[in-house]
Amino acid sequence: MVSPTVTLNSGFEMPLVGFGLWKVNNDTCADQVYSAIKAGYRLFDGACDYGNEVEVGQGVARAIKEGIVKREDLFLVSKLWNSFHDGEQVEPICRKQLADLGIDYFDLYIVHFPVSLEYVDPKVRYPPSWQNAEGVVKLGKATIQETWTAMESLVDQKLARSIGVSNFSPQLLMDLLRYARVRPATLQIEHHPYLTQKSLVNYAQKEGIAVTAYSSFGPLSFVELELKNAQDTPKLFDHATITSLATKYNRTPAQVLLRWATQRNIAVIPKSNDPTRLAQNLQVTDFDLAASELESISALNQGLRFNDPLNYGLDITIF
């Protein structure tokens, strides 16, 4: 099965269901990407700070070499890290990431967070992190406008077919749209029933910006990071609202959660090492929840955010 697509404002088609590469271990990454391609995945969502782009490229190259897919069949996504927001650093790091992946262009290249950090040369520290080479968090001076202007040049040079943003608020999006020559094609946000961000989703979609959800299973992605609010939050997979619908439709709780998003035209990027779950996560557009059922899931909203720098002990207020 291959995912249906959503048409971006750039004119390109993006799969509604993809494979997220966050926390995919280097020693298994190439095989996981290859297996996901064989299973029907075409969108792969990565980032330079995940530290696995070389291995992602190896999995992609293997699938292409074996004739499973062509490059144009894939939708490869990566992100600009915070320490490369200075206008003159955007193109060089994009080119490095492309080289690491062994490809000529990104289908989508995203500003990872709306915060500029002090530049750290990749020769000094790579993959990058929130801290500089001395282990200190230091803010940079690049404005979002400076960064976005450089992002637009990537489209001009055909290094990225589409560009987008992640972790932006409605206010930041509104400001960006005032000066953007190339409008953001996508907005990627933490989005699950405990954090629905309804007004942000509505605003982005009204402006023709496709929304992609990360951490669709809520606290599950963050328990292993020992975040207290994730450890103390009931698992969505065990919530009666979700399990009752899973039973009704003969689906897994994961499929119900992913359908809650995709049915509202929100793209999802789950990952799994298990071949069965890998296939199940892709099969989330062939059944429909009733409108009242969508609303019952949305009613679980608590405004509970897990992916916040403050939760990791970083004194950076974004949200």
UniProtKB/TrEMBL annotation:
Pathway: Carbohydrate metabolism; D-xylose degradation. It comes from Penicillium canariense. Signal peptide: none annotated. It comes from the Eukaryota. Pfam families: Aldo_ket_red. The keyword S-adenosyl-L-methionine does not apply. Substrate binds at H112. It is an enzyme of class 1 (oxidoreductase). The keyword Oxidoreductase applies. CDD domains: AKR_AKR2D1. The active site is at Y50. This is D-xylose reductase [NAD(P)H]. GO terms for biological process: D-xylose catabolic process. Keywords: Carbohydrate metabolism, NAD, Oxidoreductase, Xylose metabolism. Gene3D superfamilies: NADP-dependent oxidoreductase domain (3.20.20.100). Belongs to the aldo/keto reductase family. GO terms for molecular function: D-xylose reductase (NADPH) activity. Its EC number is 1.1.1.307. It catalyses: xylitol + NAD(+) = D-xylose + NADH + H(+); xylitol + NADP(+) = D-xylose + NADPH + H(+).
